[in-house]
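call fold target=Trypsin family protein
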Amino acid sequence: MDRGRLDLRFHQAGSTPSEESALDLEKVYCDHTNLPSPSSPSHQAFTSGNQHSESNAAYFSWPTSSRLTDAAEDRANYFGNLQKGVLPETLGRLPTGQQATTLLELMTIRAFHSKILRRFSLGTAIGFRIRRGLLTDIPAILVFVARKVHRLWLRHIQCLPAYLEGPGGVWCDVDVVEFSYFGAPVPTPKEQLYNELVDGLRGSDPYIGSGSQVASQETYGTLGAIVKSRTGNCQVGFLTNRHVAVDLNYPNQKMFHPLPPSLGPGVYLGAVERATSFITDDLWYGIFAGTNPETFVRADGAFVPFADDLDISYVSTSVKGIGEIGNVNILDLQSPINSLIGRQVVKVGRSSGLTTGTIMAYALEYNDEKGICFFTDFLVVGENQQTFDLEGDSGSLILLTGHQNGEKPRPVGIIWGGTANRGRLKLKVGQPPENWTSGVDLGRLLDLLELDLITTKEELQGLSFRKF
């Protein structure tokens, strides 16, 4: 597809940093024009005509200002109680308590020290310390800075501590990671990959499934997964990103494959029934992830039930280039850090096809110029300095590869963005900075949208027969 020709009418929803991009040093970290106003209802509904769904109206889930006010006191009490369990900090001394071993312990330590970390950094994440570009097994809070230099060239007040302690003396390392900022993205043609796999995803295959191109009136992205609703008559449809599927400038949020009728050949797939962009941290993680009462998690997802006249026999539950997939990997914050960090992942998207990478960090946190705190779940880096995704791959499933031969890859997230044009992570001295990809926790997103993954042809066929 010639992006230059279609720039005014049709654009990719992909990994390039849009207004939601994080870690922007010189401008704003995040221009969230979709955040709710004080008068916003909890569900913004609009009529969606010609929609084949259980109701004739889609809804969007937004955090409400009234709930934020109610939760502010709870948040203050939570951190006040944590303070009672934190040992007095002594600069220069080695910690004597237990080293953090779980994601929850790292998140608690980071949350408790979020104010001081915010003064020093562009953002933070949790994971393992990185040395010479490789992950170690040392639990750490990653602190992103614009330029990493030797301590000799810093004043004492500019130096971060080597360790941070949380409640009960549980501690972890602090690892400083350089984020190279390249300024605002410029409207240049984006890289396109052409091979048999991606040509099939863009419309050459006689079926659709995870990785296939999906398009609204002006945006295209990637179909993430085949899903069913947990409510009503268990509608079958697909999951993708909200920013791929929803454009409120149009009254009907219709989706097509491979293109909308105004731009080329395509079949009507269905219309968005429910979608979400943000959720408060306590509802998403089950804990207060920071002291800021205005803290949100990027939960970029949309459910599109298939149209009644769509032939389900053309829908595949396997992932092209990978095959059958396993059940969703449910992420428990009390799990060991290495249950997630350092895991190898794969994805198939309509732009870059099949790529591999590593989950380098979790719960990336950053603040915008208005003092609002945002989180995104996964930070993935491609293997061998290759990008994990390209523009247009938004919505792609992130799959954990199996530990053993024959084990099916398990979905853990979906891609929602990245920083290929705005900035990169410098992970190793002497090598250029690397692109990174951000993703949404799939298990939590499915719960929020009340969906279940369909992973077998038999289950899909059984549900399709129930329609009639």
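return ok
The longest strand covers residues 353-367. The two ends are 38 Å apart (CA to CA).
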